[in-house]
Design brief:
The chain is an alpha+beta fold and 137 residues long. It has 6 helices and 5 strands. It has helices at residues 18-24, 28-38, 41-50, 57-63, 69-81, 103-136; strands spanning 7-10, 13-16, 55-56, 85-90, 96-101.
């Protein structure tokens, strides 16, 4: 059963035929390239924390539970390289460095915060589903 050229309905769900994917979706290389950076657990947390205002490294480190100093440094460098975060060093004693989301980073924060909200709202249901699945296995 079809509903439009190049599309078919299968079990009530819309299915895009493989021949039409290239014209409707970016290449998987493009998607993987971007998602490999923003899709890791630390980057999403950092972008989410920086969406409203700049934070110093130590404040970020305190707020991102479980991240090592080295991993936070690497994550911030990668996000800065990708244009999602900016770094500003102040010539003070002791030195002060702040990180802030760029316009591009703030544009990413909206879907990230939506995902965070979804995860929080559905955590119990997902945990219950896992327990049910594991018990049946």
């Amino acid at each position: 059963m079809t509903d439009a050229p190049g599309r078919s309905l299968h079990d009530g769900h819309r299915h895009v035929e493989p021949s039409t994917c290239s014209s409707e979706f970016p290449s998987s290389d493009i998607i993987r390239d971007v998602l490999s950076r923003v899709g890791d657990k630390w980057s999403l947390l950092v972008v989410g924390l920086l969406h409203d205002h700049p934070l110093r490294f130590t404040e970020l480190h305190r707020r991102v539970d479980g991240i090592s100093h080295r991993m936070l440094t690497q994550t911030l460098r990668n996000l800065e390289r990708d244009g999602l975060v900016s770094r500003r060093a102040y010539a003070e004693i002791p030195p002060r460095v702040e990180y802030a989301a760029t316009d591009l980073g703030r544009s990413l924060a909206e879907p990230v915060l939506g995902l965070v909200g979804w995860a929080a709202a559905n955590h119990e249901e997902i945990t219950a589903a896992r327990e049910t699945f594991d018990a049946a296995s």
